Amino acid sequence: MTAIEKPTVIIIGRPNVGKSTLFNRLVGKKLALVDDQPGVTRDRRMGDAEIAGLEFTIVDTAGWEDEDPDSLPGRMRKQTEVSLEGADAALFVVDARAGLTPLDEEIGRWLRGQDVPVVLVCNKAEGKAAEPGILESYSLGLGEPLGISAEHGEGIADLFTGLWPIIGAKAEAAEAAAELEAEMDDEDLSGPLKLAIVGRPNAGKSTLINRLLGEDRLLTGPEAGITRDSIAVDYEWHDPKTNETREIRLIDTAGMRKRAKVTEKLEKLSVADARRAIDFAEVVILLLDATKGLEHQDLKIAAHALEEGRALMVAINKWDIAENASSLFNGIREALNEGLSQVRGVPLFAVSAKTGKGLDTMLSAAFEIREAWSRRVPTAALNRWFDDALAANPPPAPGGRRIKLRYITQASVRPPRFVVFGTRLDDLPKSYERYLVNGIRAKLGFDAVPVRVVLKSPKNPYDSNRGGGGKFSGGEGRD
């Protein structure tokens, strides 16, 4: 699938039924020449149209005439036939005052044999004189006709009712994609990396930052809970890989103990401050104590960072004094995968704040994960993956009714957020939502980054209960 474009709607009809007048009405300006003389329009003309927020590309075509294929009118008819290829919908316009003609009936028969959905439009329908022509048009077998007056703007809103079920989902996806393209350059990765160090008390957070800075910038000691405020320190790090100097804003936070153990008011404020630091960070490093391993409180801290949509890394500190190092590392890796099942494969590092072991590797990975956290997937590549994912594992059909997933678009970054458009989404199993989330991570380069997926059904602006419908999946919390 190519990049999502606005749906295309083609106007078809015999000469002088008001096709160009309708075209001008929908685009909001006089782009097409209009005259009582038939055959004024010879070439296809395209414009951007909108009805009640429904945006699409409208195509005006030459009047359909029953002439020799080699004549000028015959070649114009061929152009009209070709223009229907690839269209999402057709507006078949007849003259309600004149009633049906044999040429109208011929066009109707041809359209019934095509794959493009048709909306039957009775133009010039103002006044009672048009009623017989509207009733007669039912005989075309193209559904209920919509009576409008393109010249006076009457009944144009009714076109929304006819077009929305056909092109609404694609129009919404195209609108979202266009907004994203306009914001492609908004996220600046040239600024300092906002890196928060979090963990239980006495894991060595302040010691690690002091090691990076090369000075005793933060107070440390054997007593737990020395750090009370979240301290931000600007740091210039020399990247040994690129031989470049990169800016980092290091954020030291208070140790976060189990809620039941936090009794003093000051400590409660400190923990709340640490949680706010997570909210403002780009990458969060959960620091573990190698002498204590991974505890349930560590998993709760990690889960909070993921719920806030932060990019998460885990570092095992005090590696220089770790016992049974290989077994410890593998045990923590397994526990993380089990305890953080919503984001498997969180980057894990062995470091020593005392000796400096592994710190450069950890910081280099922090920049890489921020890049993934900020990544936008081109619409074309995203929908190619989406088509492949649906082909490999189609959505189920509960009760024999198909769940249709139509389009996907990336709504935002930091964290990556995707919107899937479709119908009957309330019946989509959680297991299939997890299948999509895992596929996005595995195939589109997001790996351990928290990914959010929102399922959205088309919304009808004329529906009194509108709101579009939609549900969230991904395991990291709701926006």
TrEMBL record:
GTP 2 binds at residues 199-206, 252-256, 317-320. Residues 466-479 have a biased composition (Gly residues). One of its GO terms (molecular function) is hydrolase activity. It comes from the Bacteria. Transmembrane segments: none annotated. Belongs to the TRAFAC class TrmE-Era-EngA-EngB-Septin-like GTPase superfamily. EngA (Der) GTPase family. Associates with the 50S ribosomal subunit. This is GTPase Der. It comes from Qipengyuania gelatinilytica.
